[in-house]
Design brief:
Layout lengths: L3 H6 L2 H10 L9 H4 L9 H6 L2 H10 L9 H30 L17 E4 L4 E3 H13 L17 E3 L1 H12 L6 H25 L3 H13 L8 H13 L3 H13 L8 H13 L3 H13 L8 H11 L12 H21 L4
Antiparallel strand pairs: 1-2, 1-3
Family: Belongs to the sel-1 family.
InterPro entries: Sel1-like, Sel1_AlgK, TPR-like_helical_dom_sf, Ubox_domain, Znf_RING/FYVE/PHD
GO molecular function: ubiquitin-protein transferase activity
C-alpha cells in the first residue's frame, strides 16, 4: 500500500508504473449512453430530467442541430421530436387496425351502428341482437319467410353471439381508429349505460330495494342494456316486495291482476297486494284500487263512494306520499271524480 507521502516522493516513471497496477474506477453510464437513438424509451418527463450533455447526446443521435443551443432549446427540440415520433407510431397502429378490422365489417347491417350486443345471423353478417331479433319477429308475425337483410336470400332464425367483436370494437375506439364521431359517441354512451346497469344490479344484489324496482321497470320496458322480459320484471318486483318496497308491492299486484309476467292471472292475489300498497301510501296502488271499486273491475264489487275515496287519496301527496302516477293516470282519476260530482248533483232532488 503506497501512502500519500510516498507518492509525492516518486519519480515520474515510478508513478506511471503504479497507476498501471491500480484498477480503474468504474463509472456508471450516463442516461444518454443507455438510451436508444430512436427515443423509443425516452418520455417527455425523462427529457426534463436530463443534463445538458445528455440532451446534446440525444440530439446528436437524432441528427438534430444542437451546437450553441441552450439547455431549454435542446429540451424543446427533443420534446417536439418525441411527440412527432409518438404521432407517427399512433398513425401506423391505426392503419394496421383499420386494415385488420374494416369498419363495414363491424357495423350492424341494419342499424348502421356499432353493435352493443353483436351476433351473427345465418347469413354470416353481423347485427345488433335486439335489431335483428325485432326484424325476425316482424317477419314471423306477418307470416312471411325470413330473408337476409343483406343478401335477400332465405335464412333461419338462429343467432350466434360474437363477443370477440365487442372486444375488437372497444380496442378500436380506445385507439381512436374509428373517426366517425357519431358512432364513437353512441358506443361510449352505451358503455356508460352498461356500467350504470351493472352498478344497479350490484346494488339490487346487496339489498337495495330502489334498485330492485328500477330493474323491474328496466326489464319491463326493455333497454339497450337489457332485453324486454316481463317474467324477469315481475321477478324483480317480487324481490322488491319481499324486501319491503311498497312501490314494488303495488307493481307486483298489477302483474297478477293483468297477467303480466306471471303464469296465471289471479285478481284476488293481485288486489290483495294492491290494497296493501295503497294502505302504505302508494298513489299508483290507490289509483288502481279506486278504479277497480268505482268500475267493478278485477273481481271487485262496484262501490263508487269507496272508489272515489281512494281516487281522491291517489291525488293527495299527504295521503299517498309515494308518488308514481303518470300524467295520464292523474287526468283519468280527475275525470272520474268530476263526472261523479256531476252525476251526484243531477241526482239530487230540487228543493
Amino acid at each position: 500500500m503506497i501512502s500519500v507521502s510516498d507518492a509525492f516522493k516518486m519519480t515520474y516513471k515510478d508513478a506511471v508504473s503504479c497507476t498501471k497496477l491500480v484498477e480503474p474506477r468504474k463509472v456508471a453510464p450516463s442516461f444518454a449512453a443507455t438510451r436508444r437513438p430512436d427515443l423509443s424509451n425516452v418520455s417527455v418527463d425523462d427529457v426534463r430530467k436530463l443534463t445538458y450533455k445528455e440532451l446534446q447526446g440525444l440530439c446528436q443521435w437524432k441528427r438534430l442541430p444542437s451546437k450553441g443551443l441552450k439547455k431549454s432549446h435542446l429540451r424543446q427540440r427533443l420534446v417536439a421530436e418525441i411527440k412527432k415520433q409518438e404521432k407517427q407510431e399512433e398513425m401506423q397502429r391505426r392503419e394496421e387496425l383499420d386494415t385488420q378490422f374494416p369498419l363495414d365489417k363491424i357495423v350492424c347491417f341494419l342499424s348502421k351502428k356499432l353493435p352493443p350486443n353483436p351476433v351473427r345471423a345465418e347469413d354470416g353478417y353481423l347485427y345488433d341482437e335486439p335489431v335483428i331479433q325485432a326484424y325476425i319477429e316482424t317477419a314471423k308475425k306477418e307470416d312471411r319467410a325470413i330473408t337476409s337483410p343483406a343478401t335477400k336470400q332465405l335464412m333461419g332464425d338462429r343467432l350466434f353471439p360474437a363477443p370477440s367483436v365487442k372486444e375488437y370494437i372497444n380496442a378500436l375506439v380506445d385507439c381512436e381508429v374509428i373517426v366517425d364521431e357519431n358512432l364513437v359517441s353512441l358506443w361510449k354512451k352505451q358503455g356508460r349505460q352498461e356500467a350504470a346497469m351493472d352498478a344497479l344490479k350490484a346494488s339490487a344484489a346487496s339489498g337495495d330495494t330502489s334498485a330492485m324496482l328500477k330493474l323491474g321497470f328496466a326489464f319491463g320496458a326493455g333497454t339497450s342494456c337489457v332485453p324486454k322480459d316481463s317474467t324477469v320484471a315481475c321477478t324483480w318486483f317480487q324481490k322488491g316486495h319481499a324486501a319491503g318496497c311498497v312501490r314494488a308491492t303495488a307493481w307486483l299486484g298489477y302483474c297478477y291482476i293483468t297477467g303480466y309476467g306471471v303464469e296465471h292471472t289471479c285478481s284476488v292475489k293481485g288486489m290483495a297486494f294492491i290494497a296493501i300498497a295503497a294502505a302504505k301510501g302508494s298513489d299508483f296502488a290507490a289509483y288502481v284500487l279506486g278504479r277497480a271499486l268505482y268500475c267493478g273491475k278485477y273481481g271487485m264489487p262496484v262501490d263508487m263512494d269507496e272508489g272515489v275515496r281512494w281516487l281522491q287519496k291517489s291525488l293527495s301527496q299527504h295521503d299517498c306520499p309515494l308518488q308514481n302516477l303518470t300524467n295520464r293516470e292523474r287526468d283519468e282519476a280527475q275525470n272520474i271524480l268530476v263526472n261523479h260530482v256531476v252525476v251526484a248533483d243531477e241526482s239530487t232532488p230540487p228543493n
